[in-house]
Amino acid sequence: SQELEQSPQSLIVQEGKNLTINCTSSKTLYGLYWYKQKYGEGLIFLMMLQKGGEEKSHEKITAKLDEKKQQSSLHITASQPSHAGIYLCGADRDNQGGKLIFGQGTELSVKP
Amino acid sequence: DTGVSQDPRHKITKRGQNVTFRCDPISEHNRLYWYRQTLGQGPEFLTYFQNEAQLEKSRLLSDRFSAERPKGSFSTLEIQRTEQGDSAMYLCASSLDGGIAKNIQYFGAGTRLSVL
Fold first, then answer.
1. DSSP string covering A53-84, please?
2. pLDDT digit string (tens) for A33-88?
3. Nearest CA in chain B to A46
4. What is the distance in angstroms between the CA of the first residue and the CA of the last residue of chain A?
5. Residue A24: its chain B contacts at CB < 8 A?
6. What pLDDT is attached to residue A109?
7. Minimal-distance CA residue of chain B relative to A107
8. Residue A95 Cα, gap to closest chain B Cα (Å)
């Protein structure tokens, strides 16, 4: 079983619509990282959350970490075709700033 | 370009052959990571280095896999006697050292391995 569960696994939205991707763990997350991946390419860092209740935004993307530090969400406002790709959450479970474990990813398609 | 560089981008090999991949991290980063990713899955951790020291290896890393970072700069990942199950994207990442806040890992474009 995945240590990090992402939902949904895939998502198709109309351009201009808002959407939310969730990342859930049964254990405390000491650092939560969101990445975006284009098919066949490497991961691009989006945001990192560390404190319970923390929220960060960049352009039209907002990421939140809940108070218990077991769930994070990524919200995209007014989606555009350029937002299409695979979104991955990664977490430091050991609190040592080392390896990350990842969810299985959420594939986002944005229809123009 | 000062990002993480991986070479080659694609490798096709026959079962039983040995392959070697190279990763050049961001120059000031002293941590270097290797991950493996299969279709429809997130990356799985393989191993990581702090400078030239290999600090952790996953149980996924069988004895056919070996990684080195001899001078604390670039790293190589070698797979001996490749099997079809080794077909995957091999990703390299690098980061600073200094706890969670500095552990933002920057990834290369990956090496896609196909074992025939």
1. T-EEEETTEEEEE-TTSSEEEEEESS--GGG-
2. 999 999 889 999 999 999 899 999 999 999 999 988 899 999 999 999 999 999 99
3. B104
4. 35
5. none
6. 97
7. B40
8. 7
